[in-house]
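Look over this record before class:
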Amino acid sequence: MIRFAALGDSVTSGYGDPMPGGGWRGWAALLADALPAGTDFHNLAVSGARIGDVAERQLPAALDLRPQLASVLIGMNDTLRGDFDPRVLGHSLTDMVAALSACGATVLTARLPDPGRMFGLPGVIARPLGRRMAALNEVLDEIAVTYETVHVDLADAAYARNNWSVDRLHPSERGHRLLAHSFATALVEAGHPVDRLPGLDAMNPEPSIGERVWWMATKGNRWLLRRSTDLLPTLAQLAAREWLTTTQPTTVRVTD
């Protein structure tokens, strides 16, 4: 029997992939269904989690499970915060993957997409966010090499519009299926047992344009207001620094 522990934030929780009867499914559940029969799946992910949250709360629970397979898909929320420090976050991620590997788990990791491109932000904000994500992805790539994780690149394949839900923050069902399919394919290539590759086509009804507009009017604006207390000031600071960097006159020193 394979015991699979999924660590992460709202993406791994399944947000963006609603089930007709209520609740969320998501890429990790889709992947678990594609693994050999009897797989014991534990989704430990929590919406809004940052790398420190996963290290402090989810990792101990995962280690107690002694999983044969564990996924660590985290970091997007950290790039949107004012205290972002790739060195500190890198140490935390490294310790997390090292601990899971030491207990015998095969660890799934991924290069993450650029939030500036996902949200369609103006260049003055998108560029510094892109640099943050590039720094985090460099850390993730190094961890993948050091600990021989099953590592997939989501940075280039995830930007198609139908892969994202109406909030542009969480994958749609198609996006979750893309993640599950990518990890299943990587597991097969690494020699791990997978019964089948998850399908890429959405099986549940996709929201209409009217439903998307209604969601944004009734829920999306409230989400934006809640996040504005910490997200928008950080974006404003990043934009100001970017503007100063690009408009600062160059001083030429002339010597005799």
